[in-house]
UniProtKB/TrEMBL annotation:
It catalyses: (R)-pantoate + beta-alanine + ATP = (R)-pantothenate + AMP + diphosphate + H(+). The gene is panC. PANTHER family: CYTIDYLATE KINASE/PANTOATE-BETA-ALANINE LIGASE, PANTOATE--BETA-ALANINE LIGASE. Its main location: cytoplasm. It is an enzyme of class 6 (ligase). The keyword Nucleotide-binding applies. GO terms for cellular component: cytosol. This is Pantothenate synthetase. Beta-alanine binds at Q61. The lineage of its organism: Bacteria, Pseudomonadati, Pseudomonadota, Alphaproteobacteria, Hyphomicrobiales. ATP binds at residues 30-37, 147-150, 176, 184-187. (R)-pantoate binds at Q61, Q153. One of its GO terms (molecular function) is ATP binding.
C-alpha cells in the first residue's frame, strides 16, 4: 500500500492505472477505522482493480461547538488495518492540502440537507457534499462506497451525483453492528462503559418501531412520540431527532401503511451524538437494511 499526502501525487499515481483501463474504487473516511469501514473496503476490493481509501477529518462539516478538535485520530493504526486489507492507496492529506485557502465554493443539496440531522447541524451536509465532490474530482473513481448508517448522507450524495452528472457509482453498504445491535461508529470510543451499555437503547428503539408498525401503527406523529418516550426511559439518552420519513425524499409522511418508511434516530448518549436508522415496511425485503 502506498500512502499519498498530496493531490498532485495521487493524481499522478492513479493516472497510470486509469490509462491502463483499471477500475478505481474510493472509500472516503475520516479515519479511526473500525469493522464497518473495513466492510466498505472489502466491497470496494471485490468490485474494482484499484482501491483508494481517504482519511481526512473535514473541518467544513463540523459546527463551531462540535468535536473537530477531539475527533479520534490514529493514522498509524489505520494504515496498518488498510495495508492488511489490501488497499492500494491511502490518501491522507492535511487540511492545508485540501483547502490551501478558505473555500469560496460550496456544494449543497439544501432541501435534503435541511432535514433530520441537518435541522440540528446547519451547514453540516454542505460540508459533506463539498468535500465528497472534491474527493471525486481528485480520485475520479468509478465507484465510491458509503455506509448506510449515515442514511441521510448517502441520500444526499446520490442526489448530488445525479444532479451534477458526476460519473461515479454510489454504493451503499449495510451497517455493521456490535453484538447488542449498536451501529459501529468512530464516535463510540467517546462512550464510557456505562454510556456504552446505555447506547443499546438506540437499536432497541429501531426494533420497537418495527414492532409497532407490524401491530398496525399508521400515525407518524404518534410513532415518533412513542420512540422518543421509549428512548428517554434511558436516563443517559437525549433524543435530538426521532423521525418517520419517506426513505427517498426524507419528507414527513401523513400515514405509514402500504409503503416503506425510514426511521431516523439522532440520539445523544451523555455528550456523544450517535446516529442510526432503519427502513421498515418495504415490500422488497429491505426491512432493517440500514
Amino acid at each position: 500500500m502506498e500512502i499519498v499526502h498530496t493531490i498532485a501525487a495521487l493524481r499522478e499515481r492513479l493516472g497510470e492505472h486509469r490509462k491502463a483501463g483499471r477500475k478505481i474504487g474510493l472509500v472516503p473516511t475520516m479515519g479511526y477505522l473500525h469493522a464497518g469501514h473495513m466492510e466498505l473496503v472489502s466491497r470496494a476490493k471485490a468490485e474494482n482493480d484499484v482501491v483508494v481509501t481517504s482519511i481526512f477529518v473535514n473541518p467544513l462539516q463540523f459546527g463551531a461547538n462540535e468535536d473537530l478538535g477531539k475527533y479520534p485520530r490514529d493514522l498509524e493504526r489505520d494504515s496498518a488495518m488498510l495495508r492488511d486489507a489490501g488497499v492500494d492507496f491511502l490518501f491522507a492529506p492535511a487540511v492545508i492540502d485540501m483547502y490551501p485557502r478558505p473555500m469560496e465554493t460550496v456544494v449543497d443539496v439544501p432541501k435534503l440537507g435541511a432535514e433530520l440531522e441537518g435541522a440540528v447541524r446547519p451547514g453540516h451536509f454542505a460540508g459533506v457534499a463539498t468535500v465528497v465532490t472534491k474527493l471525486f474530482n481528485i480520485v475520479q473513481p468509478d465507484s465510491a462506497y458509503f455506509g448506510e448508517k449515515d442514511y441521510q448522507q448517502v441520500t444526499i450524495i446520490r442526489r448530488m451525483v445525479e444532479d451534477l452528472a458526476q460519473p461515479v457509482r454510489v454504493v451503499p453498504v449495510p451497517t455493521v453492528r456490535d453484538a447488542d445491535g449498536l451501529a459501529l461508529s468512530s464516535r463510540n470510543v467517546y462512550l464510557s462503559k456505562e454510556e456504552r451499555a446505555a447506547a443499546a437503547i438506540i437499536p432497541q428503539a429501531l426494533a420497537e418501531a418495527a414492532r409497532l408498525y407490524d401491530l398496525g401503527a399508521d400515525d407518524p406523529a404518534a410513532l415518533e412520540e412513542a420512540l422518543r418516550a421509549f428512548i428517554e426511559r434511558e436516563p443517559l439518552a437525549t433524543v435530538e431527532v426521532a423521525a418517520v420519513r419517506h426513505p427517498e425524499t426524507l419528507e414527513p409522511l401523513t400515514r405509514l401503511r402500504g409503503q416503506p418508511i425510514l426511521i431516523a434516530l439522532f440520539v445523544r448518549i451523555g455528550t456523544t451524538r450517535l446516529l442510526d436508522n432503519r427502513v421498515i415496511g418495504s415490500k422488497s425485503g429491505n426491512e432493517g437494511v440500514a
